[in-house]
Design goal:
With about 190 residues, the chain is an all-alpha fold. It has one domain. It contains 6 helices and no strands. The radius of gyration is 21 Å and the shape is elongated.
Amino acid sequence: MGGIPAAVSRLRGTVGVVYREMLKFGAVGLVAFVVDVGLFNLLTSDLWFGTGSPPLDGHEKLAKVVSASTATVVAWLGNRYWSFRHRRQSSRGREFLTFVFLNVVATGIAVLCLAVSHDLLGFTSRLADNLSGNMIGIGLGTLFRFWAYRTFVFTELMDADQRDAAAADAALEMPAAADESAAEAATLESPRAG
């Protein structure tokens, strides 16, 4: 197979891989989002189970940094061992530090959104804090994270045997059309007879 059909087949295989990565990234992100938003609200609102006012009441930006930092560790574990299992760096430490640095940048996006809303625009209600920091800020940060993880963190593809073993361990059921794309992509990777 050559020319345009081969290019289309390769494109379909690539889109299938990115699609699966996005689904897994989204699932990991959802868990990290629950950790982030839950901890933020626990530290700043009436959800606090202790006596007295919440520990970071009046310190919303610090609460956002604490909640996002905790969510970062959850996200790294999920993305390393599931979402991008087939794309790791050989140095786990360097990978984690790059991941943390990029999450600091993404957390800065969320904190900036919260600061603009809370301090600059004067929207100080819990709803406004959640909309600016947890919806808009995390939304923009998520777009940045997916691009940054694929570009700077999870950059080294495993060899075929390692990739197959990792894919089998971290499989996510896909519609039949996506399975066909993966099969065609695998066919392109195998050596030609002849």
